[in-house]
Amino acid sequence: MSDNFLEGTSAAYLEDLEKKFLEDPSSVDKSWAAYLQALVGGRSPASLVEGYQAFQGREGSVAPIEGLANSQGIQESMRLLLLLRAYQVQGHLAANLDPLGLDPREPPIELDPALYGFTEADLDREFFLGTWKMKGFLSEDRPVRTLRDIMGRLKQTYCGTVGYEYMHIGDRDKCNWLRERIEAPTPPSYGKQRKLRILDRLAWSEMFENFLSTKYTAAKRFGLEGGETLIPGMKALIDRASELGVESVSLGMPHRGRLNVLANVVRKPLPAIFSEFQGGVKPDKDGGYTGSGDVKYHLGTSYDRPTYGGGMMHISLVANPSHLEAVNTVVLGKVRAKQHYINDVDRAKVMPILLHGDGAFSGQGIVYETLDMSALSDYTVGGTVHIVVNNQVAFTTDPKSSRSSPYCTDVAKGLNAPIFHVNGDDVEAVAHVCELAAEWRQAWKSDVVIDLTCYRKFGHNEIDEPSFTQPLMYQTIRKHVSAHQQYAEKLVTEGTVSADEVKSIQQGVKDVLAAKFEEGRTYEQKKGEWLTSFWSGFKSPVQLSQIRPTGVNLDLLKKIGMGATEVPEHFNMHRAVRRVYEGRRKMIESAEGIDWAFAEALAFGTLMAEGNHVRLSGQDVERGTFGHRHAVVHDQKTGERFVSLKNLPVQSEFSVSNSSLSEFGVLGFELGYSMEHPNSLVIWEAQFGDFANSAQVIIDQFISSGEAKWLRQSGLVMLLPHGYDGQGPEHSSARMERYLQMCDDNPFEIPDMDKETRMQVQSHNWQVVNCTTPANYFHLLRRQVHREFRKPLIVMSPKNLLRHPAAKSRLDEFDDVETNDLQGCRFRRLIMDASAKVKDPKTMPIEPDFKRVVFCSGKVYYELAAEREKLGLNKDVAICRIEQLAPFPYDLVGRELNRYPNAEVMWCQEEPMNMGAFHHILPRMTTLMKSKGRAGQEIKYSGRDPSAATATGFGEVHAREQAGLLEEALTL
Predict the structure, then answer these.
(1) Quick one: pLDDT band at residue 796, thresholds 50, 70, 90?
(2) Ranges of each domain in the chain
(3) Quick one: average pLDDT of 817-845?
(4) Helices marked H in 480-609 — which ranges?
(5) Looking at the predicted structure, is the pLDDT value of residue 583 above 90?
(6) What string of DSSP letters covers 405-462?
(7) Predicted confidence (pLDDT) at residue 166 exceeds the cutoff of 80
(8) What are the Transketolase-like pyrimidine-binding domain coordinates in residue numbering (predicted)?
(9) Which of 2, 48, 85, 188 could staple 38 via S-S, CB 3.0–4.6 A?
(10) Most distant CA pair in the chain: distance in Å?
């Protein structure tokens, strides 16, 4: 071995050299230092080149070791390191990942020793590898090993049934952490008890699906056949996470395998699942609310289950629609809220697990939005375990038609997440990578991805015919032996279990399934399966909740107001922002002129003083898109941040967070956050109202219908800046009409509106509001929390009114003193005309001389009022502001119709006729007028003509249109 630079050198000498280097790298020759550094790091062969160059230049204080330091030896060692690195980087491309054996990939040329100059003759030569622990199996206390041994272990580790992708991670410590575990001195293995546990879990996974297919042959269930190893894998993950300190797991997943996960991972009672197949959730005996319900493979639930380590794990599965990945950030928001409420600052006790399909993971943008949020300080949850159930086909689409990357998981590499590809037929390998994923998440608090490569035994659902589009794949699948059968045969062959023991396990599963099936015939849903403890005592849509006041004691208001305007003396505020804060202090001192942003701050502060958590999130919310809020101020010299509301002596926390440029993901996150605990005000603000268009899936599938489908309440507030200011169609596009169209009330029936018994809001799916005064906005926000139920709130928030001189409120409009005049201490669903002084219908005087009553909503009121004043029509035209568009205030609108019995009725809006509130208002007012004996009276319209675009982009045209609708509203 004359060309081996180690010839003549003992292993003991090399170990001594290595020890000196680790203690003091400068104590060895520079060429050896560079060489040893490359071995220690295992990441940058370039350093070895430097070592070779140093050797050639004869740099260094220590003479090279005789017989060892020749250029051929250094080059050969460098080539060996390049080969090792090739397996670490690209070994996964040669791994045995496809259970069906249909993967046509050729191993990369970089894995061929011949590329590095090694021949057959070199296989039994010995090479020095180093002895330090981080080298794992490449040392095993044997610093000198043959190339054949090295190649065997490399293939076993990197090209078996697990393919590891982790060398793209830029953090050296993370890479070495993984390498130590991946390149362990001995391959992962399980003892008899662990194997029996895995076999039992795999039996439950497969036989549950078989049982359902037998009992419900024609039912869609989106079974897990072909991916059954997911269940023992998830259970191993949860067991390991429990050992590492996790106490609660929140799951999000699509419908594939959902029933199996519910039954075998979450431990939802089997009779409950069978009951849903036999007719669904039955109404409570007391006539309780059951909602519309949903298909069984969309439902969520929550349970506590024991782990094998002796602990208890709370597991919740979040309900989701068929939009496969939409639930992702909803889960993360829920997890973040859980962490907040139990003070899990290290994010070690609550862990999210998201399951994905392969087509969806690569194809849906929400996946990237989810990953992008993973390390953001106000959105991180300390790492998510992603499991891709890779069926190798998305509905009917082959991978080559559904993505442009080799793997469906490649998007995760951009966020430096490790990815473990695993053959779904190797159940022990699946369990191993799931445990490794749990360890990674707990160690590094960052995302990790498991790519479970399996197959789909049947079509997209059980009555689908997959051979239409994948004939060759399904020819193979029909002949393929299940993972359960393979593993049982393996354990019998190796002597771990006998064939009789396997049959006994299987018979035990069958017996339990049969017994639970019978129980399902008479099963009654328990309320505890739907509600968490935080929501105990909250009312359903069929239980009366009393109206509560929202005013606040003036002393507390002043205290909050003064505190919210205090900034440390040393803080160098921007001049314009300082003027804003000084102006707010004057508002408190004078008790008048309170504007929109300060009213909001007072609402936040008073709610926190009462123990309610407040969270505001969205793009640019810290200062506000229109520079009005300034909840966060920045030192102009140091960049230091200051949040005055966080420095109040209150009982709860205020969080305000500029989000990533995401609507879909962030709105989902805030929805999930709001669902965890009712004693919170959670707000998402769109930069402009039309930005909500990008989050329509969350709005349509979750917010508007979540309570009806899944019996889950949320008090989420959406602020959608809206108004017509001549800034073009995209700045006037909050699309109010969409939210009104999704309201679930009947426009042809007037509900009970008696103050003591009305349940209109409770029976509604959500609220849509377009209010006009800071005080009303204050009460609106506080009303969200001061109830015994929760409903989503859509606010058409203003732009123009943020600084409008007339859109101001006095401090006494915020107080808790009951009065009979215009102020009061609750949110006003309708604001009467300025000439009206009496609210009580019993003592209300009739105004027979008014010729017209104009109903409107939002900032157009101020333009109408100014134009009316200009024209001297204050005694001829009344203007009523409908602040709450939905649920429609029949009682208050009816009161105003009674007040002006001889007046013609008009609706005025800025939006085109086919948009805005007109088509929502029209049938409801028609119904109401009919009940008042005014059937047939026309409801006139003043507004823009129907249009495809929401608004004109020409300033002159906008001004002409605005003047025209005002003229039409006020010309008698």
Answers:
(1) very high
(2) 11-169, 192-272+299-517, 554-722+770-802, 833-970
(3) 79
(4) 483-494, 499-520, 554-563, 575-590, 596-609
(5) yes
(6) SSSTTGGGGGGT--EEEEETT-HHHHHHHHHHHHHHHHHH-S-EEEEEE---SS-SST
(7) yes
(8) 594-804
(9) 48
(10) 116
How far is it, in rounded angstroms, from Cα 326 to Cα 329?
Answer: 7
In the predicted model, is pLDDT for residue 89 greater than 60? yes
Among 204-213, 328-337, 454-463, 592-601, which stretch is predicted with the lowest mean pLDDT?
454-463
Which pLDDT score, from 0 to 100, does residue 58 have?
Answer: 40
> CA-to-CA distance for 111 and 155, rounded, in angstroms?
9
pLDDT at 690: 85
Tokens representing 126? 């010995």
Sign of CA dihedral 465, 466, 471, 476: negative
Q: What count of other Cβ atoms lies within 10 Å of the Cβ of residue 37?
A: 16
Rounded CA separation 492/494 (Å): 6
Spell out the CATH class of 833-970. alpha beta
pLDDT score at 756: 84
Domain 11-169 homologous superfamily, CATH: TPP helical domain (1.10.287.1150)
Residue 938 has pLDDT above 70, yes or no: yes
Buried b (16+ CB within 10 A) or exposed e, 495-531: ebbeeeebeebbeebeeebeebbeebeebebeeebbb
Residue type, 8: G
Q: At 804, which amino acid appears?
A: H
pTM (2 d.p.): 0.89
For the CA atoms of 336, 338, 341, 344, what is the dihedral angle to 10 degrees? Answer: -70
- 8 A C-beta contact, residue 652 and residue 614: yes
Q: Residues 77, 48: contact at Cβ < 8 Å?
A: yes
Residue 637 phi, psi dihedral angles, 5° rounding: -105, -35
Q: Where are the beta strands (DSSP E) in 230-300?
A: 248-252
CA atoms within 13 A on the CB side of 439: 13
Neighbours of 152 (CB within 10 A): 13
Residue 792 contacts residue 714 (beta carbons within 8 Å): yes
Owner of token pair 């991978």: 399
pLDDT tens-digit series, residues 701-710: 999 998 888 8
- With pLDDT > 90 as the criterion, what percentage of the chain qualifies? 63
Q: Are 695 and 668 in contact (CB under 8 A)?
A: yes
**Per-residue pLDDT tens digits for 15-54:** 677 677 777 877 877 666 766 665 555 433 344 444 444 4
List CB contacts of 408: < 8 A, sequence separation 6 or more.
358, 359, 361, 362, 388, 390, 399, 402, 451
C-alpha dihedral sign at 270, 273, 276, 281: positive
Residue 416 and residue 353 in contact, taking contact as beta carbons nearer than 8 Å: no
CATH architecture of 554-722+770-802: 3-Layer(aba) Sandwich (3.40)
Average pLDDT over residues 775-803: 95
Structure tokens at 179: 């390498």
Give me the mean pLDDT over the 397-423 stretch. 88
User: How many Å apart are CA 327 and CA 335, to the nearest integer?
Assistant: 12
**Alpha carbon distances (Å) from 457 to 209, 334, 838:** 11, 33, 71
Q: pLDDT by residue (tens digit) across 176-207?
A: 999 999 988 777 889 999 999 999 999 999 99
Nearest-5° Cα angle at 838, 833 to 839: 85
pLDDT score recorded for residue 381: 97
- The answer to whether the CB of 418 falls within 8 A of the CB of 166 is yes
**Is CATH 3.40.50.970 the classification given to domain 192-272+299-517?**
yes
Mean of all residue pLDDT scores within the chain: 87
DSSP string, 80-143: HHHHHHHHHHHGGGGS---TTS---PPPPGGG-GGGGT--GGGTTSEEE----GGGGGGTTT-S
Q: What whole-number percentage of the chain has pLDDT above 70?
A: 88
Tokens, residue 531? 């509600």
